[in-house]
């Protein structure tokens, strides 16, 4: 299986870093073709491979569309906890001016990689209390799974 792994990093994801690192280590040994990239809160026009160089070594998201075909499975890992503006509006990102909304970027990614899932480290019982989690769930057509052993198993089933 060919896998693209997009990892949310920073801010509200900081408490989940250890669990995400363990997932990342396990994923490396399970997939022959695994490419990983970082983003903050929502997918926008740029991603990066090294968080220390996130501002000077960004890779345009458009390049990923040209590089990785529809045969790749796409896994997003993040708490989906952000201002709803970051998803819904151009200019809503909290770190930079995004000319295109996060919603549009996520939908483009799903159009390009139709086998995609979002893994969320926030316990599922808390999802209804965060508006942005609901927004991401809708964008992903409810292909969001908790980052538990059962959730990851269910998420992998959603990819196939």
Number of β-strand runs: 7
- Largest pleated sheet: 5 strands, parallel
The geometry reads as: globular
Helix content range: 25-40%
Number of helices: 6
Average pLDDT: 90
Taking Cα atoms only, what radius of gyration do you get, to the nearest Å? Answer: 14 Å
Describe this structure in words.
The chain has 160 residues and is α/β, with parallel strands linked by helices. 36% of the residues lie in helices and 19% in strands. The protein is built from 6 helices and 7 strands, in the order βαβββαβααβαβα. It has helices spanning 17-30, 61-67, 84-88, 102-112, 131-139, 149-159; strands at residues 2-8, 33-39, 46-47, 59-60, 73-77, 116-120, 144-146. A 5-stranded parallel beta sheet has the order 2-1-5-6-7, with helices on one face. Strands 3-4 form a two-stranded antiparallel sheet. The model has no long low-confidence stretch (mean pLDDT 90).
